[in-house]
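Extended Data, panel c. Modelled sequence:
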Amino acid sequence: MSRSFEPGPDPATPGGGRPPVPRSGPAQKRPARRHRLAKVAVCVVAAMFLGWLVFQAPFVREAGCHLLGRLGPPAVPLLRRAGDDSDPKVMQAATEALVRIGPDVVPPLIRSLRDSDPQVRTQAALALGTVGAKGIDTGEAVPGLIEALADPDAGVRRWAVRALVYAGPTARAAVPRVAGALADPDFGVRMAAAETLWRLGTSDPEVVAALVAALKDPAPDVRAEAAEALGRIGPPANAAIPALTEALADPDEQVRGEAREALERVAPAGKDQGPKS
């Protein structure tokens, strides 16, 4: 009579039970799935970037920006470039992607301010202003932006001045340098400097004096911007009243209009503001 074989306890298994059989559940599959998704994402980005460079299709560049925003700081150089795109939709997509990355976007942009390529430096200054305007804290970029005010490229200087507007309270350290930019050889930098000074909320006598001097700028747009800035400062700029009164006779209509509005804000009530025409 044969007996059925009953396996005895396995000495290698505590309690004599069967050793656990590894199961390929969700926890084991997750890393492999993430790896596959990462490879797909890299391939898609590479394909879109190829379309960006070769076919110059705006819709491809726009879609690529949205995807790059999911990849974090490594995507900043491409998004920085896209922020200077000729298509406004691509520019908007690049901005949204940079903001999506958050504060981690700031250090790579600061490093780019010192790049050997002036176009890269310009794009970095532009991007810092853009993300700052969207609420990202760019205060740590202030030293780099101040340094950029002496950049040999006018485009870098212009966007660096504008970026300081959105750099928070620490940007007040840049006021003397921005006031000095009112004498920059590039009229676009001078215009940006006048606007930045009043937006930074400064009424220092040195700033008022620099804006008064800018009322004699050879470019009418700069003179108009300086007059508006003095008006925005208000009564603390009362030392500018004689110069603003003189500007009411400026040959440019816009300058005359800005000077008149500035006097209404700066001069005490009843103060003679000169001719009305």
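Residues 26-55 form the longest helix (30 residues). This feature is highlighted in the accompanying rendering.
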